[in-house]
Amino acid sequence: MNTTRELIDIADKYGAKNYLPLPVVLNWGRGSRVRDVDGREYLDFLSCYSALNFGHQHPSLVGALTQQATQLAVCSRAFMSEQLCLFERELAQFCEMDCVLPMNSGTEAVETALKIARKWGQQKKGVPPEKNKIIAMRNNFHGRTITVVSFSTEDLYRNGYGPFTPGFSIVDFGDAEALEKCIDENTIAVLMEPIQAEAGILIPQAGYLSKVRELCTANNVLLMFDEIQTGLGRTGRDFCFQHEAARPDLLILGKSLGGGLLPLSAVLAPKSVMDVIRPGEHGSTFGGNPLACAVGREAVRILREEKLSARSEELGKKAMARLRELSFPQVKEIRGKGLLIGIELKGSARPYCEKLAERGVLCKETHDTVIRIAPPLTISEKDLMDGVEKVTKVLADPS
Ligand SMILES: Cc1ncc(COP(=O)(O)O)c(C=O)c1O
Predict the structure, then answer these.
(1) What are the pLDDT digits (tens) for 312-359?
(2) What is 59-305's CATH topology?
(3) Which of 182, 184, 328, 377 shows a CA-CA span of 20 to 30 A to 34?
């Protein structure tokens, strides 16, 4: 068997360098624990950026996956599948939305929502295609395709990828007045994350999301929430928008919808909006395949039956309370909702994440200065608090 060092050398030689991972090479995971190839065990405090809300290898998700794999894994979208039909109904009912359009990655779901919004803008709002405008937020993260990075405000995500897709305007996240000023008669949609996780767990002031909802309603503009990272229990509610009762028109889900086992994303919308898409106008070979749908159904069932959103809220409060009990000169702010917690430092967070890895806790800096803490929602209270204790020790003595 190869050692960590040997495998890192292999990746250095053969892999693209589009990530800068910590020097840890994993080959096992159960619940909130993972092991590296040298047999060291860690707590997973990152959860694959919230794709692992149910932890690694949740038994009933693995059961749904293996059962469906031996039944019917993939079928042409030229036919229907039992799992797809049931998944669509169960997800729509869970989200209290009319219709579902399943895709694979989160970025694809965002692209899908943009396509739906543009068609709706032309067909239902009557905005000419060359004039339609979608408003996105400064510091957004919605994925990596050329259209999606067209409205990123992060140079790193855009450098060298132009020319970009036109039709987007940017306003400051959290500034409802700026949004109001930016909305005009050609505005068809507003796209935002209710908490900007990749930007460093940026949480808007209370009342902002409902104000955005009001503005969109008043101006006949579609509100699209990207809950790919914040949805499915992560912030202590099934969906982050429920903290403010600011229900979107389009809801975009991904990551944990696939149960931490495979890619599955979806856009949910009212019938009057979804019906702008006609047969042949959009699709995906693997989008809505029976294997992914069987897992997605089970993911929704577990979230509801194991009451993971309430658990996320309760555990998140305990972790935040402990972190806030102590004061560290290098910590600027500790903020979070549910089990999505950011510790913002005055300097680089990378050395702290490296130290934490050495001490058996895996997390990763986001936007250089923020340590993100986002363990599986199924983590035991003991493991969570043990990990938090290690974080406090590393903050107290990073050497
Ligand atoms: C809010 C948000 N939107 C979209 C994406 C893109 O999802 P994917 O990497 O599955 O394409 C991510 C991924 O981190 C995300 O956090």
Answers:
(1) 999 999 999 999 998 899 999 999 999 999 999 999 999 999 999 999
(2) Aspartate Aminotransferase; domain 2 (3.40.640)
(3) 328
| Average confidence (pLDDT) over 141-147 | 98
What confidence tens digit (pLDDT) does each residue in 204-219 have?
999 999 999 999 999 9
Decide if pLDDT at 190 tops 90: yes
- Residue 105 Cα to ligand 1 midpoint, Å, equals 8
Q: What is the pLDDT of residue 1?
A: 86
Model confidence, pTM: 0.98
Domain assignments of the chain as residue spans, ordered by start: 4-57+307-396, 59-305
The average confidence (pLDDT) of the chain is 97
Q: Which residues contact 126 (CB under 8 A, 6 or more apart)?
A: none
Tokens 């209370």 belong to 206
At the second CATH level, the architecture of 4-57+307-396 is Alpha-Beta Complex (3.90)
Rounded to the nearest angstrom, the distance between the alpha carbon of 378 and the centre of ligand 1 is 21
Task: Choose the residue to mutate in 228, 261, 286, 366 for probing ligand 1, maximizing ligand atoms within 8 Å of C-beta.
Answer: 228
Buried b (16+ CB within 10 A) or exposed e, 4-38: eeebbeeeeeeeeeeeeebebbeeebebbbbebbe
